[in-house]
Amino acid sequence: MLLFREYIFQPEFADPPPYAFSVFSPESEFPKINGVYIFGELMDLPSRPNFIEPLYVGETEDFSRRWQEHLNSPKGKWPCAKQYGGNCVCLLEVDPNHDRLGIQNLFIEVLDPPCNERR
Hints:
The protein is an alpha+beta fold. It has one domain: GIY-YIG endonuclease (3-Layer(aba) Sandwich), CATH 3.40.1440.10. Helices cover 24% and strands 33% of the residues. It has three helices and five strands. It has a five-stranded antiparallel sheet with strand order 1-2-5-3-4. The termini are far apart. The mean pLDDT is 86.
């Protein structure tokens, strides 16, 4: 189920534009999307309603397939996200000609989500 059509993640750096993610419940039927995704905890904070705490950032050429891997593989990251309160999946569709991996790495560096492995 789609929770929000547009949730803006704007990392705190000057150059890139804000990124508009679609936000879904984890029970959703996910589309085959080429892009970047974030597992997060959707919270209603007094000062920030509908705030999403990023817990894991990834990239894929087919999110519907990748989601199943996160659920069913020992290396899947959804169980980690759930331990931290994960309750939503944010998807950003990326044109195949754009640098999906670069966007993912930028978000990992800036957001430092707890379920991404530290280098």
